[in-house]
């Protein structure tokens, strides 16, 4: 069970906006690039000014990013605008956005750079496993327990916590230490799902 399981309900909330974007001629690739640009800018600003209070905005950026990610997929599927370029932008954009939005934690005092790097590497690996699953089965692997949406909730909440209680910055290390094995578990689940589907 992951946040991905409630994606249909989330999409239903966004459907009126999807219709308006389509009517105005907005393409899925434009939405994808907007999400990527916003993530990179936010990551650069948080890295350049690693003030705990500013991390209050991380949850906002992550929520907007998740909404934009849902919108580009809905525009592509529901209005027959799926392209190979869009598929590449979607996968590469997810990885670059993750790195951009989570790397700033490493610039906070008392936070271990190596744990942040490990979690970023494993986050990228989960997306790679998802693509491998899609290559083998025709369906993207979205198993948990720490998929893209779950990571957004975890680190968005962490950003809120350190903004409100900056004296407990050291707890961020615990969050990353817990996240690492959960990401490994996610990779295993996604690969296992692909193997079962192909009867390997």
UniProtKB/TrEMBL annotation:
Pfam families, sorted: CDP-OH_P_transf
Superkingdom of source: Bacteria
Keywords, alphabetical: Membrane, Transferase, Transmembrane, Transmembrane helix
Segments passing through the bilayer: 113-132, 152-185
GO biological process assignments: phospholipid biosynthetic process
GO molecular function: phosphotransferase activity, for other substituted phosphate groups
Assigned GO CC terms: membrane
Protein name in UniProt: CDP-alcohol phosphatidyltransferase family protein
Organism (species): Rahnella woolbedingensis
Phylogenetic classification of the source organism: Bacteria, Pseudomonadati, Pseudomonadota, Gammaproteobacteria, Enterobacterales
